[in-house]
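We close this part of the discussion by returning to an individual protein. The sequence in question and its structure tokens are set out directly beneath this paragraph:
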Amino acid sequence: MTRADEIARGRRASAPVEPDAEGGSGFKLLEPPRRVLSRARRSGPLRFLFGGGEAAESRPPQTTPAKLPGELTRALRGVELPAVPYVTEEQSPGAKLASHADRGGRWFAFRARKRRVSSDEPGWLLAFVLCAVLLLSVLPLARLAGAGVSGLVDGEAARLIFEPATFAALRNTLITATGGMVVSLLLGSLFAFAVALTDIRGKLILSFAFMLPMMIPPQVTALAWVEMSGPASPLLKTLGLAPPLGSPQQPLYSLSGIALLLGVQHAPLVFLAFKAGLAASPRDGIEAARLAGAGPFRVFRDIVLPLATPGLIAGGAIAFVSGIGNFGIPAILGIPAGIETLPTLIFSRLASFGAATFGEIALISTLIAAISAAGLLVQQRALAGRDYRLIGHSSARAAFALGRWRIALEALVWALLALVLVAPLLALVASSLVPAYGVPLNFETISFSAYGEILFRQSITLTALKNSLFLASAAALGLLTVTVPAAYLLVSRKGALANLIAILIEVPYALPGIVLAVAFILTFAAPLPVVGISLYGTIWIILVAYFSSFLAVSLKPVMSAFLQMDPPLEEAARLAGAGFSRRMRDVLLPLIAPAAGASIILVFLIAANELTVSALLWSAGTQTLGVAIFNLDDSGSSDLASALSVLVVVLVIALMAALEFFAKYLPEGVLPWRN
């Protein structure tokens, strides 16, 4: 037996032990935490932790022997505790805390507790996450902001903004974004009310179908509507509903057409925001109002709508900001009609590359970012000073039983869904099955040659398909190496630094894609330092931009899984001696695996159909599916563009169906179309 063991055994032997009523094992349980805390505040060497005061070491601590259950006492009778390692008074935790107290009392005690809490976090974790955020968010946005500030200093911004082309593009952007916001509010609020507060049937299918326009690329949406309307529409010709000859060739080639499709594309954003507010309506308040004699309209006006106003305002602001930066719809509908918005103006300036191109597109991008920020500030201003706290249970069931009006509302929402989704997609399929645009679809004209051309003979589309699959897969899988450590860090850490990291992750996703693309052009146009390699014009700059743009998308499911995880699971592994890598591999990763799978599918779904970012970053050999669809339609190959768009829509629906199939294994809130 060592000297330390002998001393420890001697101390235990000399300590007074009071037997319990059962005959006694001699053991005492720790006192209840509240009793210990109150006594520490009154006396003893820990008084400095709870307000300071004179020392009271002379008073012995008042303890009460705790009684063990009889079964536990009999089980422990005769059991000897292992020897306690010898610790000098100078090395004891109490002595160390007392030394901290001598240097400043409560502040140093708080610092010691902070170090103990964060000691289980590996030292490289914070540095890794900060470096990733610096590269993907701070560096490109700082480069863009620097270019914008230099333009303001040199006076180039005022000259560029007041140019006729820029001023017209700014006016068109504001008109179409505002009109699209109005359409989104009308459609999104109607569907949100029907799904969240009424007793209509088929809510899951309705939500799933209504979310499709947001998942489908905007250029595909625009192309589908073009194929559905106008006198040359194959679908309308087949149904005998085509306008007569001499009618306007395409009514969608206008500001109102762009605004309409922006509203259809972004209505799911309003749907999600408003539905969340409606679902949180207090069930107790609604029932109390009904018992007081209030009718359904009065209940909705005075209780439900005021509490759901934040979601409605937030949805409208998001729809407006999304319309400001949308490129696909204005490109398909505006360029043929000579209508330019700020995103298409950037595209045209980059296409006609000159000496001042980088400076001009940086200033226009800064203008888009400023308008987007102004829209979000208006949202915050509208919500300022309002108190929306709820008391009582949220509305877990339908608040309004429609009775005989239920069939009418169901007919209305399904008819609108058929108009904004089903009919355009059918027109897209019909256009892909005819040999030329304007030919009616029948048994004599039907042909699958466009699909054969796309899949087997067109080298450009095959290259675009390979590039999109590679970029989407690499972004979806590669982002997990950043989002898993970042989610763990954000969940375990609280404070200003964690909040700042979360904001910096969200900013690139909130900005219009065209702005983010310009930021990466400015950042990586010159060769990288040290290595001397330029990413501009390669597929790698698109991949890095995807990492930045979709980092927030990948983070949300993983962070939701960490938040819903039971902390004692990791705590038990830590107490058993498992390090961070072992805990992550054996405990945490198996538990967050379903959420990580959902993150992969969501990022893949969005990245495979992306156009706005890649439209400015692609070059020969790096085309993506979105760029290929735009180029095919721009060159007049409407049948090939339609066939490729149909394949993209099928891919989107298949991935969304896969997510729905695994919904029961995913954390709550990961799938936006589920209630």
